[in-house]
Amino acid sequence: MTTLRDAAATVPATSVALERFAALARDKAIVVCCGSGGVGKTTVSAAFAMEAARLGRRACVVTIDPARRLANALGVAELTNVASPIEGPWPGELHALMLDSKGTFDDLVHKYAATPEQAEGILANRLYKNLSGALSGTQEYMAMEKLYELVEEGRYDVVVVDTPPTRNALDFLEAPGRLTRFLGHRLFQLLLMPTRAYLRAVSVAMQTLMRTLSRVAGAEIVQDAITFFQAFEGMEEGFRVRADRMRDLLGQDSTAFVLVTAPRDDTVEEARWFADRLGESGLSVDGLVVNRVYPRFAVTPHLAPAPAGSALAVLETNLRGYQAINAREEAACGDLVLHLAPAPVVRVPLLDIDVHDVDGLGTIAGHLFGAPTARAAARREPAAPGPSAPPSVPPSDAG
Ligand SMILES: Nc1ncnc2c1ncn2[C@@H]1O[C@H](COP(=O)(O)OP(=O)(O)O)[C@@H](O)[C@H]1O
Ligand SMILES: [Mg+2]
Fold it and tell me: Which atom of ligand 1 is nearest to 356's Cα?
């Protein structure tokens, strides 16, 4: 195994790609990491923010990860809806927060309500209590809301957003629009009319409908709905203006979208879908991270056939297995790489550690940005970077 380990090397990222990734961490004001669940988005987001802090910038990373992965990756016990500083050996600042979408929605209601009473009325409403958690796209929208709030605060040089681990992650692109459309909806407008005057004016058919609704859904629920909509009166404009500004923010040059994928057909397909959705919104991918790539072995041994059953024969079989996986992984992401060109592509190897502290993140950062420490380490030991001990080739498919 020692021979293989020494020969281990990952696909060398071109220094140009590393430099372009480093430039994203150095220059951008917003970095949005997208990709399907489990590919390493949270890890990459944290690494981006950490790299920015290393470059002397004030960085904040926002995660929506319900699994507390970011807190875990940063080696802290807990994160809240308010940014908390992460201590570390960097000249800049690193802050992190975990999005609480309900809390963010509540803050928003406070912000846009004309009076504290209006805000309290909404927050106490049963429908709101359910809706603020369940309205489709709420989480995605609130992530953008939080992003906007952080950018507006001007407290940070860069805000990194880790999107939710679902296909709906990019709903935030249209979520602001959806919320304002919802608030501008005709039914909503109707319900906003003072109830009595409105009920007098509407047709018998409508009254029958309302009665039926009350019978089916319960009079209380219908009343809740009416008070809910009435409570929002006058707030749509604030939401609309904010949604437009948010959309502008995402389209600016200072915003970067980084797509994260695993070198497997299914996640690559998802990544492609994300890229196309961004494209439909007039946005583009500024960098692709292919994460958890199997190690590559630079040497192709030209040895006499090893005696069957010998240790060498085992190694050879192992090596061929790796090479087959390497080829399959490259085949899986080749089209995507071409599709996203000229976006830079960085391949991060499958590490033999779980990334759960600042050191682990530093290793990831080294692969993403060619950070100074990683480069120095690579000069000291020629085999690095790469996993310290290659795992055995899995019997069947790596992915
Ligand atoms: N290059 C890597 N090598 C080894 N483990 C990794 C690598 N990247 C991420 N991980 C691990 O994979 C798991 C999922 O990563 P995470 O960033 O939480 O994914 P996501 O946010 O996309 O769901 C975590 O346990 C993390 O430590
Ligand atoms: Mg995550």
Answer: 27
